[in-house]
Sequence to fold (175 residues):
Amino acid sequence: MGAVVGGDAYLVFRLGSRRCALARAAVREVLPLPRLFRPPSLPKPVAGFLNLGGTPVPVIDLVRLFGLASAAETEQALYRHILLLDDPGGAAPRGLLVDRVTDLQRIAPERLRPVAAEASLNGCAIAELETAEGFVHLLDAARLLLEQEAAALSALQEGASARLADWGLAGDGPG
Fold:
């Protein structure tokens, strides 16, 4: 993985044909795509739930959330990643499904530039990072969901917790 001495660390990933990044400090862990459970009637951007030690972690498919075409064909879908994030509000963690994590880079602050409003992925991209391979959209994890979407996701998570408890799976390991 490429690196620049100094600057902040950013995790670079693919969403379809786009390259995006999150501040490394926002990402708790990068996971290979495990089996997710998907209760009926989930909104399209919710890929399902990851059972993380008995806690259902909602996983948002960023490609669907942003309405992008995915590069992950059937055989490539096995290589997708989940970025496990802590909820900024201190609640349960959340996962972001991306096509593939490609790099961890340190970018000097002077290599960030403003992003045009029409290219901001509905206000979620807060800057562009200049890399050797071109510009990368820097996403703000706190801006990915609207307040109403976050509230609905919390309600879905409560329902998934109840479902795990009904099946005696709360407190079990991942899977």
